């Protein structure tokens, strides 16, 4: 076998192998994403993706090399005031040598900064598609690394008549309007050198307008980087749309993918794709396109996070009153189930923590933390906290509110003001894609059943430049004590079990 001659790269992630051994053709002849042809000269040929390399004979893998980088990226140390952490610098070549990458760092480990460094403006435009809440973060980082601000595309009316500059070096467009702006982005007159899909897990629905629009953009992009800090999905079927976006063609059609990896079974109403098959092979292929870092992996390179569990005493008489009120509320709404009752009880218990939450704000101010983030789940709890702050804290102390992605300007004002202030943020809306690192002190007035939501929200105040403090208010009741234990927020709990973010989520969710 002469590996140096029968393998040649196509673009970056695709290769061609002429006349592979007969036994290899037999074993992998119908493998998803491998394309077999016979040319007029009778040469049997297979075109395959980088992710197929775990299936290849070792001699073939050795001949593939590192691929052909599409860009040199930003030279390390060439950006004043911007320094990659050691693990980011080590991972940059991985991004530069691939056409499609799933960058699956856990939250706040620096996905945005690393992605900006992987783009070279000389190659063409940078197009960023993501949630509206991430707009300011991207604008800030692109400007810091490259010296220019992305053009933010907003609205959906009269786009055809909009006088915007073509060939701009960078664009940001949020999920809700990307389908309206796709034609404009495709007509910019400049190559899309890097297409960034922030919070790419939001595009799992293959039939959604945003996914269809991004498919068009992906077809014009030289490099595609999908970003997510969310734990990996338990069913490969939910990953297909993302993998097909990041590595078009590498995973074949949805049906062929599902038959091979999703244990597809015929059902009464068509095929069902609820299982997992060829799991080891699927995991091995993912390793060649997915770059995963967890907090446990890089903890020695990061400043410490101080977590404090603050019990809030609940007198027995008060607890009985709250439990009765929760039961009556469930009966009145017709949601008299265990889940409905526990959700209502959790909201009622939060009302008992309002005073403790504002005590925490005053304590933070007195101890050199002028900006405080308060996390809630229910609107009525957030309203009560805001009212109590207005009643007790010093005059002129500003309180901002973040309820949905459209409240991003509240984060901008919270970050920009030099005065002491607080922001009350919804765990549901603010747990991902936003930057609250202007504060180094966070208070959780409410918790959630799902570890991913709480831990992602916790990391919004993280900054690599200094430590931060996270306080969890826990009503001294069985339900909230169990929530604290199940969520794994106690550092000794996490360390003693040797669990990272994904593992804790899997244990609690049963995935």
Quickly list its features.
Rossmann fold, 7-stranded parallel β-sheet, disordered N terminus, alpha/beta, 511 residues, globular, 3 domains, 22 helices, disordered C terminus, 39% helix
Task: Explain what you see.
- The protein is α/β, with parallel strands linked by helices and 511 residues long.
- The chain has three domains: 3-64; 86-298, Tandem AAA-ATPase domain (Rossmann fold), CATH 3.40.50; 303-317 and 349-509, P-loop containing nucleotide triphosphate hydrolases (Rossmann fold), CATH 3.40.50.
- The chain is 39% helix and 19% strand.
- The protein contains 22 helices and 19 strands.
- The chain is globular.
- The two termini are 45 Å apart.
- 40% of the residues are buried.
Number of strands: 19
Q: What is the helix fraction of residues, given as a range?
A: 25-40%
Largest sheet: 7 strands, parallel
Radius of gyration: 25 Å
Strands ordered across the widest β-sheet: 7-8-6-9-10-5-13
| Termini gap | 45 Å
Q: How many helical elements?
A: 22
Specify the structural class: alpha/beta
Superfamily (CATH H level) name of the largest domain: Tandem AAA-ATPase domain
CATH architecture assignment name of the largest domain: 3-Layer(aba) Sandwich
Mean pLDDT comes to 80
**Beta-strand level of the residues, as a percent range?**
15-25%
